[in-house]
Design goal:
With 510 residues, this protein is mainly alpha-helical. The chain has 21 helices and two strands. Helix 4 packs antiparallel against helix 14.
Length: 510
């Protein structure tokens, strides 16, 4: 492994790689800072830019966009109390309070430093843990892979969605879309509707752009268009100082670990990690009463955690082919268009591509920090871009991206159709992440289930009997049903708490 790391280091210090990492980090920061443009949408829009790049260059660029966008989402939250990404909500709670007290620059500086530390820590874990996970994953058989996919989908319903039923329904809808086209073993057509472009299924990139880009455009169209009444306050001094950072060392370490661990769990994204880390930081704090009133520890804990999710979420995606959240699902699309199939064999089949990509994340975290301290006073103005302009730009990029994938007008219609579906589901409070994960994981689940059924038939066993033949499979089945059961229990408990508040005459809000 050390030889591969050394070879990768030579690749990423080339001028072209350095430039791509810097451009990706800068563009990700700018996109993330725009309210309404999430990290997922940033990658979905920029994946088509990598079509003509080599696999290594494309992944270096997209990885940097990922890191930059997760950090950038906090800028608008701190300055104008409007988070650029869901992951920045926890940061906004204390960050905006600091801005109101004239400490916006200190909040932004702490934000940059915390994001840098959390991101670098998670990449170190990714670099050394992912190959070990891949070695173990090589021993996983088809039955286990099938249940790993189902378990991943079930955890999305249990953790990542507001409603268990809606989360699971969205995941099933995605699985159905993912099975469109030819059956991998029999060649039978499903859901093709006599349309040749659908014979190979719904392209992941087209679905991704439609679900996240077009639905967001329709969502933005509900706003005030070209109107903006917000103003950016004075930023002021940004560097928090070594003494302040030293006092925050415990919060940084704990939050980085929490973010990395949460990133490993399918369905648990950066927003969940940031709130958990903030809660833990408050529990261990000497001044817990300051939280929510402008606590620098609140900003530090949330940002270290949500950026640490980056490395953690890439581990299941690269080693098992299972994206942990919507952002890594978008990044997975970038791998697929370059002919890379994520999974345990990726580390042995394409180490010359994979290790430069992982090492480039160190550069990405460094570059967004440099870019933040050097240009944030100018970049911050993008938070005031009117929604009408954002919607127009996103639409143009989405159409170009969908068409350029296969040069088919039909793909544009697929994109718009899924965009409308995504918008309707968002209005009905259905999460979109399980849909795109279902589209990606559906073919994997189907392929492994077909193998299981073939092997079971050869051994004259039923499929259930075959599943029960290995303790690993049984364990995954138990975990899957436990996750589904927990999701329904969580919903039941929430309803009971809500009913109790209503009975007591409390204001429950929306």
């Amino acid at each position: 492994m050390w030889e591969q790391i050394a070879d990768a280091a030579i690749v990423i210090i080339q001028p072209g790689s350095l430039l791509l990492a810097f451009l990706g980090a800068a563009m990700g920061t700018v996109f993330g800072a725009m309210p309404g443009v999430s990290a997922t949408l940033s990658i979905a829009l920029l994946v088509p830019v990598t079509f003509e790049m080599t696999a290594t260059s494309g992944l270096i660029f997209l990885g940097a966009v990922y890191c930059g966008a997760i950090y950038g989402g906090s800028i608008s939250g701190i300055l104008i109390n409007v988070p650029g990404t869901p992951a920045a909500v926890a940061t906004m709670i204390d960050g905006y309070e600091m801005t109101k007290k004239g400490k916006g620059g200190l909040a932004l500086g702490t934000d940059i430093c915390s994001s840098f530390v959390g991101g670098q820590f998670s990449v170190i874990v990714l670099l050394f843990l992912a190959p070990l996970v891949a070695m173990v994953a090589l021993e996983i058989r088809s039955a286990e892979f099938f249940w790993i996919v189902i378990f991943a989908m079930s955890t999305i319903g249990a953790i990542g969605a507001g409603s268990a039923i809606k989360g699971l329904m969205a995941g099933i809808f995605g699985l159905i879309i993912g099975t469109a086209g030819m059956h991998p073993m029999t060649g039978t057509l499903r859901y093709a509707f006599d349309q040749p472009p659908l014979y190979e299924g719904v392209p992941v990139i087209v679905a991704l752009v439609g679900l996240f880009s077009i639905s967001q455009v329709l969502y933005l169209a509900e706003g005030k268009g070209m109107d903006t009444q917000l103003k950016i306050p004075e930023v002021g001094r940004m560097w928090p100082g070594r003494a302040t950072l030293w006092k925050l060392r415990g919060v940084l370490a704990r939050s980085s670990i929490i973010g990395t661990v949460v990133g490993l769990i399918p369905g648990a994204g950066a927003d969940i990690a940031s709130f958990i880390a903030r809660s833990e930081a408050k529990r261990y704090s000497k001044n817990p009463s300051e939280y929510g009133k402008g606590s620098i520890e609140g900003v530090c804990s949330a940002e270290a955690a949500n950026n640490a999710v980056v490395g953690g979420s890439l581990i299941p995606m690269l080693t098992l082919g299972i994206p942990g959240n919507a952002v890594t699902a978008a990044l997975l699309g970038g791998l697929l268009i370059h002919g890379l199939i994520p999974g345990p064999s990726l580390f042995t089949d394409a180490p010359d591509i994979l290790y430069p990509f992982i090492l480039s994340l160190f550069l990405a975290n460094l570059f967004f920090a440099v870019f933040g301290f050097g240009a944030l006073r100018y970049v911050a103005k993008v938070v005031l871009v009117p929604q009408g302009i954002i919607a127009a730009v996103v639409t143009a990029l989405a159409v170009i991206g969908a068409y350029s994938f296969r040069n088919l007008t039909f793909d544009i219609w697929i994109m718009f159709s899924l965009g409308v579906v995504g918008y309707i589901m968002r209005k009905a409070d259905f999460p979109l992440a399980p849909i795109i994960l279902g589209i990606i994981l559906g073919p994997m689940a189907e392929e492994n289930l077909d193998r299981v059924m073939t092997l079971a038939h050869a051994k004259e066993l039923t499929t259930i009997e075959f599943f029960m033949g290995r303790w690993q499979t049984v364990l995954l089945m138990v975990l899957t049903f436990a996750a589904i059961g927990y999701s329904f229990y969580r919903d039941y408990r929430y309803r009971k708490e809500l009913e109790a508040k209503i009975a007591n005459g409390e204001d429950v809000g929306k």
